[in-house]
Amino acid sequence: MPSPLVLLVDPDRDSRTIMHVILAHVGYRCAEAAAGDAALKGMRLELPDLVISENPAAMHGGRDLAAALRDRIWIPLLVVTSRATPPELAHAAAEGAVRVVAKPITPREVLAIVRELLGEPSAG
From CA 85, how far away is CA 90, in angstroms rounded? Predict the structure, then answer.
C-alpha cells in the first residue's frame, strides 16, 4: 500500500519546497501546484489524502479548490497561511479548512497536524 499522498498548493515555490522536504523526509508522497485550478487538474490523475494550501482566498482558483474538497470529494484541507490576521484565519475556516495554522510553523508541528488529519498515530 503506498504512503499517503499530500497535495501542496501555494503560489510560493519556496513554501511548497520546504513543506515537500519536511513531508518526504518521513515518507509521505507529495504533489505540488501553484494555484487551485492547477491542483484540481492534478487531482484528476490521483486524489490526495490531504491538501495543504495557502489561504484559498489568496490564490487563483483557491475558492474552487476549497469548494471541491468540501462539497464534492471531501478531502481534508489544512491551510497554512502567511495571512494570519483573525479575519483571514476565520475566512479560511469558512472556506472549508479543517485546520488553519499561521506561518511560521515548525516541521514538528506540521508533521503532528498531518498525522492527526490522516488519522495516524503520533510519533514519539
Answer: 9
